[in-house]
Structure formats: structure tokens, C-alpha cells
Amino acid sequence: MSEENKLKVMVVLVFLLLMVSVLYFFPFQQNHGDANKLNTADFLKGPNRDKAQYEPGMGRT
After folding, report:
1. Are 31 and 60 in contact (CB under 8 A)?
2. SS3 of 32, please?
3. Which domain holds residue 46?
4. CA distances (Å), 35 to each of 13, 14, 24, 39, 42, in order?
5. Transmembrane ranges (predicted)?
6. Which of 10, 30, 35, 49 has the maximum number of C-beta atoms within 10 A of its C-beta?
7. Are the C-beta atoms of residues 59 and 34 closer than 8 Å to each other?
């Protein structure tokens, strides 16, 4: 591969990594309010995720 192609591939990989990390740390959540204060990692674990979503005062409709 030429140097120019290597640079393009690196830029694309970094961009994809950035997008994945943004989606990982800021998931699109349907609940608002106090959900923003929760540790985002709780949404990625089984029981903790359910507990966090159905806790009272979360503003779920």
C-alpha cells in the first residue's frame, strides 16, 4: 500500500472508533431526567440495566 492509502485507512479507523465510543458512552435512551445522572455502564449490564430503567422517579411514561 502507498503512504497515502495507509493514511486514509488510519483516518477511517480512527473515525469509526470515535463513533463507536460516542455511541457506547452516550446511548440513545428513551427515559429522561434522572437517567442522565446514572452511570452509563449500568445500562450495559443485565440486572443493573433493568433496575435502572424501572426505578421510580425516572420519568418513564
Report:
1. yes
2. coil
3. 3-54
4. 31, 29, 15, 9, 10
5. 7-26
6. 35
7. yes
